[in-house]
């Protein structure tokens, strides 16, 4: 394991990383002043670090100049910063591409999915002072893709076991032996056994087991996750932070109460259509005053009925039940 990956692993152990959204207008315009205030607020309210430009942040859709500006503003806050890399817009929606569909061959840029793009994104993240990168899963040679990123940028990597593109166990074992991989984030949504397997393999390999399980958050900590990187912390950060704090303590009732509160919020925000969770978290961020209403839009997700907004607000306690 490379020393830089060891340093990142140890720095992130026990922390909550907010998978930040990218506030934008209905047409997709990003105001960097709004972004700066939003990211600072997440840290002030309990996030130990930030994961920017990942799935929640709609990183695959943003231009290189906007991506760089977001990274700069996150790094300026002085907390650990992980940058999401790779993932074409189609991949971010979970659309797989077989060799027949893409016309590619194994090992070609088409078959390594977003990894070729990810190399340049990793170089930029490293140059701007990010601590690590979260590698969006892609079709093709995952291990080869991670190795190419490592050779291109030399920045520690977090592997990603995502429910739309789960990582086969043998591939996961190989990734967790890579010297540049500091840990793995599991976000399998409802696959408890898969989550447990990823946590076990990570710990056996001496890597950091990171929960991204918004709908299995408390259980994933009990299964051995040692850090968190969750979209649920894109707003109402204190709800997630309270579970982490209670888990570190010895009061079982406090942990149960904090987990129950988080579960109620996750039930309202991480539900079908699942891609709508980004919009729901932006609604919540606006309700909390973190961002203006004009920038509480996700133009890349599904259209949601207005009554869903009321349901999210009720779950967060902003409207009477």
What does this structure look like?
By secondary structure, the chain is an alpha/beta fold. It has a single domain (3-249), classed as TIM Barrel (Alpha-Beta Barrel). The chain is 45% helix and 12% strand. The chain is built from 14 helices and 8 strands.
Following the backbone from N to C, one meets helices and strands in this order, namely HEHEHEHHHEHEHEHEHEHHHH
How is the largest sheet built, in terms of strand order? 1-2-3-4-5-6-7-8
Strand content: 5-15%
What is the CATH topology classification name? TIM Barrel
Q: How many structural domains can be distinguished in the coordinates?
A: 1
CATH class: Alpha Beta
How many extended strands? Answer: 8
Full CATH superfamily name: Aldolase class I
- How many helices? The count is 14
Mean pLDDT: 91
Largest sheet: 8 strands, parallel, barrel
Distance between the termini: 51 Å
The shape is globular
Low-confidence stretches: 94-113
Please identify, by name, the CATH architecture. Answer: Alpha-Beta Barrel
Secondary-structure class: alpha/beta
Radius of gyration: 18 Å
Helix content: 40-55%
């Amino acid at each position: 394991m490379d020393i830089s990956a060891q340093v990142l692993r140890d720095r992130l152990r026990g922390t909550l990383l907010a998978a930040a959204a990218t506030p934008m207008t209905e047409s997709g315009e990003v105001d960097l002043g709004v972004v700066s205030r939003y990211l600072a607020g997440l840290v002030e309210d309990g996030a130990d670090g930030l994961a920017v430009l990942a799935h929640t942040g709609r990183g695959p859709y943003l231009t290189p100049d906007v991506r760089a500006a977001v990274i700069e503003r996150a790094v300026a806050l002085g907390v650990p910063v992980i940058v999401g890399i790779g993932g074409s817009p189609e991949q971010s929606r979970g659309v797989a591409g077989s060799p027949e569909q893409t016309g590619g061959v194994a090992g070609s840029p088409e078959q390594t999915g977003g990894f070729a793009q990810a190399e340049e994104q990793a170089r930029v993240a490293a140059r701007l002072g990010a601590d690590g990168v979260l590698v969006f899963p892609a079709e093709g040679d995952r291990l080869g893709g991670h190795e190419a990123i490592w050779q291109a940028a030399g920045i520690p990597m977090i592997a990603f076991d995502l429910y739309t593109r789960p990582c086969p166990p043998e591939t996961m074992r190989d990734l967790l032996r890579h010297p540049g991989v500091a840990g793995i984030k599991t976000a399998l949504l409802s696959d408890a056994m898969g989550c447990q397997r990823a946590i076990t393999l990570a710990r056996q390999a001496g890597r950091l087991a990171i929960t991204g399980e918004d709908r299995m958050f408390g259980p994933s900590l009990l299964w051995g996750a040692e850090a968190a990187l969750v979209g649920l912390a894109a707003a109402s950060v204190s709800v997630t932070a309270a579970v982490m704090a209670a888990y570190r303590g010895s009061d079982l009732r406090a942990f149960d109460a904090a987990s129950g509160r988080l579960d109620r919020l996750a039930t309202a925000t991480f539900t079908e259509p699942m891609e709508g969770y980004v919009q729901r978290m932006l609604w919540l961020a606006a309700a909390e005053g973190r961002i203006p209403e004009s920038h509480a839009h996700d133009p890349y997700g599904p259209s949601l009925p207005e009554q869903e907004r009321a349901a999210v607000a009720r779950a967060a306690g902003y409207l009477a039940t």
